[in-house]
Design brief:
about 250 residues, alpha/beta, Sirohydro_Cobaltochel/CbiX, metal-binding, lyase, Rossmann fold, elongated, 7 strands, CbiX/SirB N-terminal domain-containing protein, CbiX-like
């Protein structure tokens, strides 16, 4: 709607250009859904523009309200510490700009459905139409130094298994269990085929690292700029406005 607060979508950032291209494509979908609301993309690290640069630019236009939506799958250090600190700095520099941080994507049921579609595409491509228990899913995520964050991902794997009927084990690109450990657990549970389902928004160095751990395993596509993700961005934006909890410097 005209006059709505600016949306600033914040991605993690990566040295891999595929990552920035993917989130840029997602922002195109976001903008197309509500062309009357200004929407900008910013990065926490490794890519430009930075969060501070975008917020300073928004303030320079005379805008007084902005909603910051983290394009993050989990509520770990970046969402709980890094981003609030960046917003506090921007608010201090631009006292007339009121900032509201929205929730992360989290384990939204729509994302689980998107991942299921990615898995189903691989299954159909390989002609794997047998009993669900014969195909094991290694749900692969980044991994965190925080055990609580890894436990949340493990719960996500159980939800995914409930949705698909496939035995599912979690693995991490930067922590244990590794992909090899997850695959061994799936085979011990009776799976004679293993497919990797990447819980990643975009391809990058970490998804490549997972592929390198076992090049023979098929990998589903990442979540990518799916229309469901654009829908979730606006849902997080709307929910943040409804809470009306501005961030003070």
């Amino acid at each position: 709607m005209p006059g709505s607060p600016t949306l600033v979508a914040v991605a993690h950032g990566s040295r891999d250009p595929r990552s920035a291209a993917t989130v840029a494509a997602l922002l195109d979908r976001v903008r197309n859904a509500r062309p009357g609301t200004p929407a900008h993309l910013a990065f926490l690290d490794l890519n430009a523009p930075s969060v501070g640069q975008v917020l300073d630019s928004v303030a320079a236009t005379g805008e007084t309200d902005a909603v910051v939506v983290p394009l993050l799958l989990g509520s770990a250090f970046h969402a709980r510490v890094d981003l609030p600190a960046l917003l506090a700095g921007a608010a201090a520099r631009n006292p007339r700009l009121r900032l509201t941080q929205a929730e992360v994507f989290g384990a939204d049921p729509r994302l689980i459905e998107v991942l299921y579609e990615r898995v189903r595409a691989v299954r159909e491509r390989h002609g794997w139409d047998g009993p669900p228990a014969r195909l094991g899913i290694a749900l692969a995520a980044v991994g965190s130094s925080a055990a609580a964050a890894n436990r949340r991902t493990a719960r996500l794997a159980r939800r995914f298994a409930d949705r698909t009927g496939h035995p599912t084990e979690v693995c991490f690109a930067t922590a244990e269990p590794t992909l090899g450990q997850a695959a061994a657990r799936l085979r011990a549970r009776g799976a004679d085929r293993v497919l990797v389902a990447p819980w990643f928004l975009a391809p990058g160095l970490l998804t490549d690292r997972l592929r390198d751990q076992d090049p023979l395993l098929p990998h589903a596509e990442v979540l990518g700029p799916d229309p469901a993700l654009a829908e979730i961005v606006w849902d997080r934006y709307d929910a943040a406005l409804a809470r009306a909890l501005p961030l003070s410097a």
